[in-house]
């Protein structure tokens, strides 16, 4: 089996994007905002060279190779987030009882009324509303979630989808809910 003696991932910073590395925390700033994240490992090094970010490791083992690749993906997502941003689109699906979707005035709660004719509305807490994640309802059935942090945008979509989970009924028949339609940038 061939052993790799060195791994080096290089993430180029496009024009208009800057990165600030202090100890193990990196802050990436761009036209859409900024993201900070902590990258700490005893053997994997993160450096900034010639206008790009570099993830390096000498004599990696299997888990360390995986960590280096994960860090590369996280850094690439951070750069993409501050330049283009991330957008998840969701759609409300119902067969008989039309749902009403609303976001409250301070963007901290998402409310679903009349799901399967229920009298009590279902409420999803939007925990990342202070971090720049924006939730909008368009045309009564479309939900658009935008932001610069991919993980927070995806987690917000999952919270909304989970709030409409149907219990004690056959899921093949009762398919009402809010589902992710597209994930894009």
Account of the protein in words:
This protein has 185 residues and is α+β, with helices and mostly antiparallel strands. Helix content is 19%, strand content 41%. The protein has helices spanning 62-83, 150-163; strands at residues 6-12, 18-22, 25-30, 33-38, 45-49, 52-58, 86-93, 100-103, 109-113, 122-125, 134-138, 142-147, 177-184. The strands form four sheets. It has a four-stranded antiparallel sheet, with helices on one face. A hairpin with a 2-residue loop joins β3 (25-30) and β4 (33-38). The longest helix is centred in the middle third of the chain and has 22 residues, at 62-83. It is elongated and about 60 Å long.
What is the element layout, followed by pairings?
Layout: E1 6-12, E2 18-22, E3 25-30, E4 33-38, E5 45-49, E6 52-58, H1 62-83, E7 86-93, E8 100-103, E9 109-113, E10 122-125, E11 134-138, E12 142-147, H2 150-163, E13 177-184
Antiparallel strand pairs: 1-6, 2-3, 3-4, 5-6, 7-12, 7-13, 8-9, 9-10, 11-12
